Every structure is written in structure tokens, then in C-alpha cells.
Amino acid sequence: MKKSAAEAHRMLSNTYGEAAISERRCREWFQRFKNGDFDVEDQHGGGREKVFENAELEALLDQDSCQTQQELAGSLRVTQQAISKCLKVMVMIQKQGHWMPYELKPRDVEWSLFACEQLLARQRRKGFLHRIMTGNEKWVHYDNSKAQKKHGDILAMLPH
């Protein structure tokens, strides 16, 4: 009950639909299995992988730092693995959906220092406890007579 490559491809297409491998790839695998090569990894096509510069990737990240590795790979027409390696070389990490350098730039360090100094100065001017409103009353009474009138008017309109 041997199947041909075409029959196997039909079965794969029926099962996996668009995600199935191509008929040509199915035939190649059949030939490899027939020759005793049971390695299921695709062989490198011999073509040279596209080389891209870090500057191209940096330019894309400057335009939109929210892109995924797959989107970046599609834009540069390279593999996702190549993008991943390049991001590691550039020491870029993804935080909260944005690609950013692992170490802060000097201007970012200065901005963080400035923000901390401002917060400390604000604290020294007037302490936290002085900004809290306190009172000695345990109960608060709120008179909302308008709402009570409207509620009473509605009850008066209902048939008894």
C-alpha cells in the first residue's frame, strides 16, 4: 500500500489546507527518503543569504519601534533569525512592546536624574503628610433634596 508523492500531497493538502507543503517539496522529500536520507530538515539552497546593515534595521526601528521581529524581517527580506542575531549584536531588547537599547543613552540618564531631582525637591518643599486632608468628623451628611423631589414626583405619577 505504497503512496505516491502526489497522493501524499493530496492527503496533506486535505488535512492542512493552505499550511501544507508544496507538491514539489513533497516530491523532493519522497526522493530523499527513497535514497535513504531520513533527515527531515530542509537543506540549505546554496544561495547566499541577504546581507543587511545594522543601519537599515536602526532606520526601521526609528520609524516604528513597535514592530515585531517577523515584521522587521519581512521589511528587510531576511529571516527572523537574522533579525534576532542583529538585535543581539546591537544590544537591543524589547520592553513593553518597544525595541530599545539595553543601556540608556546619556540624554536618557540625564532626563531620569532630572526627574528624580524634581521629585525630591517637591518632597522637601512640602512633605507628603501635609497634602493629606484630615478632619475630626466621623460622619458626613450630604443633602440631596433635588434627587429626593424627583424620586417623589415619579412615585406620585404612578397609578395606585
TrEMBL record:
GO terms for molecular function: DNA topoisomerase binding; double-stranded DNA binding; histone H3K36 methyltransferase activity; histone H3K4 methyltransferase activity; single-stranded DNA binding; single-stranded DNA endodeoxyribonuclease activity. Residues 2-37 form the Mos1 transposase HTH domain. GO terms for biological process: DNA double-strand break processing; DNA integration; double-strand break repair via nonhomologous end joining; mitotic DNA integrity checkpoint signaling; replication fork processing. Pfam families: HTH_48 (PF17906). GO terms for cellular component: condensed chromosome; nucleus; site of double-strand break. It comes from the Eukaryota. This is Mariner Mos1 transposase. The lineage of its organism: Eukaryota, Metazoa, Ecdysozoa, Arthropoda, Hexapoda.
